[in-house]
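Q: I have 68 residues here and want to know how they pack in 3D. Can you give me a structure?
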Amino acid sequence: ADLLSELLEALLGFSADQVDFAVEFVAALTRVPRFAMVSMFITAKEKEQVVAFAAGHIRGDEIVAAFT
């Protein structure tokens, strides 16, 4: 959770089209079996940020579902 929080904080100034690598990383994280436990420690603001970044991504629906 800390790693994801740090990543999201670092990306605050970027637009969604500039963070494709981070969205791919987040998509990969959602496939980790214990990701549901990690997502419990992510703040609502961070979840909103992930949803915003994932909006135009090919795996956007998958990512949004994992974070909501």
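Q: Anything worth noting?
A: The helical segments are 2-10, 20-29, 35-39, 44-54, 60-67. Residues 2-67 form one domain.
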